[in-house]
Design a protein that fits this description.
three-stranded antiparallel sheet, about 160 residues, mainly alpha
Length: about 160
Amino acid sequence: QRIQSVYLFLAAILMALPFFPPFPTWKWIVAGMGDTAICNSGPIAKGVNLSVPVWCEIALCLTALGSVIFFLWALFSFRHLKAQLQRTLLGNLCVVLYCVALGFEIAGAPYGSQQTGAIRIQIALIFPAVALVLAVLAFRGIRRDLRLLRSADRIR
């Protein structure tokens, strides 16, 4: 198989990973034991009330799901290189939108010395960046195959 298939599969796995344990997937506010917020991106705040808009959570879920769907769809459409190229590009767009929504969510987290409580960032924050790099590598590989196919058609 081609290496871009592996890249697409790994990118889809990395974008789907924050939805499964041990990586937190949703935000919970536990009022009885002090406010604890666990977000799907990985920030964990104790003693701090995170006020993140609902549209951020919805955008995170939809863009992550969209990127996984587009990457897997591109993975299984290997016979149609142009369609695979477009689907990989749409998956990349979803990953970029995921990063933007993630930035809005993290920007809503209260950082600084005036806040009480501790916030730490989890490892799940680097998954979209690694998925984007893998998807760009897959995009380049698909484009290279398309160029090779065009040159072979010219020779005929």
